[in-house]
Write a structure and sequence with these properties.
The protein is α+β, with helices and mostly antiparallel strands and 273 residues long. It has 6 helices and 12 strands. The chain has 2 domains: 138 residues, T-fold (Roll); 129 residues, ApbE-like domains (T-fold). Helix content is 29%, strand content 29%.
Length: 273
């Protein structure tokens, strides 16, 4: 039996946002308000709009101190991730013109904010997905966690692993869907050490940014992305090993166990796929 749901999908922010609410439901206007929030974020943060605050700040038309608090916060967050990652994540690194652009942290933050708004509207069991990255709250059905498939890099309709999660954000970085759209800001070249990196944690703003930075770092990025309390990471290496950190032990459905002797160092598990 398919559980009852409120479902709302909208192309926005250069991707597709899906809101899936399970019982208890929220007023329809709460879903529309969440979609309107994403549209507002797009207006202010899109690097492709000449009139957005981000574009105007980057062009010097709008002083940083005169930008809205949200815009200033996202520039600051992007700088924080840059510093934590030693430059593996850099808001200037993906632009040919070298302008500062906090796009890499905006999507996750926007989803986190939408989740908070839906909670205030009374939602207790729901997920918000933006471009494949997501936050899940509660349960899709009583007693059941959300099941999140990690896509196999070579097969669009196959999974390399499945996570069972409640009240967590999940973000994945890789090159298999959009080609070499991720560049190592330190070298100007596409990363090659991992095929994908999935990060789980309490907020999508950080999980998404850590997934990007960790993916750029290659295999060392798996542990780096999971260094903070509450975060875990799962990578698919260039030779198709599935490697994960301790937090994922309780979330991974497959593989269900770690083969004896497969440990890869401090708190990291690995298995051939």
């Amino acid at each position: 039996m398919i559980p009852a749901r409120q479902l709302r999908t909208q192309p926005v922010m250069g991707t597709v946002v899906t809101i899936d609410v399970r019982e208890p439901f929220v007023p329809p206007e709460a879903l529309e308000a969440a979609i309107a929030w994403f549209a507002d974020v797009d207006l202010r943060f899109s690097p492709f709009r000449a009139d957005s605050e981000v574009t105007r700040v980057g062009a010097g038309e709008l002083a940083f101190e005169d930008a809205s608090p949200d815009v200033r916060a996202m520039f600051t967050l992007a700088d924080l991730i840059r510093d934590r990652s030693g430059g593996a994540f850099d808001q200037r690194g993906h632009r040919a013109d070298g302008r500062a652009d906090p796009t890499g942290v905006v999507k996750g933050w926007a989803v986190d904010e939408a989740v908070a708004r839906l909670r205030l509207a009374g939602a207790r069991n729901f997920e918000v997905i933006a471009g494949g990255d997501l936050v899940v709250v509660g349960e899709p059905e009583p007693g059941q966690p959300w099941r999140i498939g990690i896509r196999h890099p070579d097969h669009e309709n196959a999974t390399a692993a499945v996570l069972v999660v409640r009240d967590l954000a999940v973000a994945t970085s890789g090159l298999y869907e959009r080609g070499a759209h991720i560049v190592d800001p330190r070298t100007g070249r596409a990363p090659s050490g991992l095929r994908s990196l999935t990060v789980v944690g309490p907020t999508l703003a950080f999980a998404d940014a850590y997934a990007t930075a960790g993916f750029v770092m290659g295999e060392p990025g798996i542990e780096w992305a999971a260094a903070e309390p509450g975060f875990g990471a799962l990578g698919i290496t260039a030779v198709d090993r599935l490697v994960w950190t301790e937090l994922l032990d309780e979330l991974l459905v497959a593989p269900a166990a770690v083969p004896e002797g497969s440990g890869e160092g401090s708190g990291v598990r690995a298995v051939e796929r």
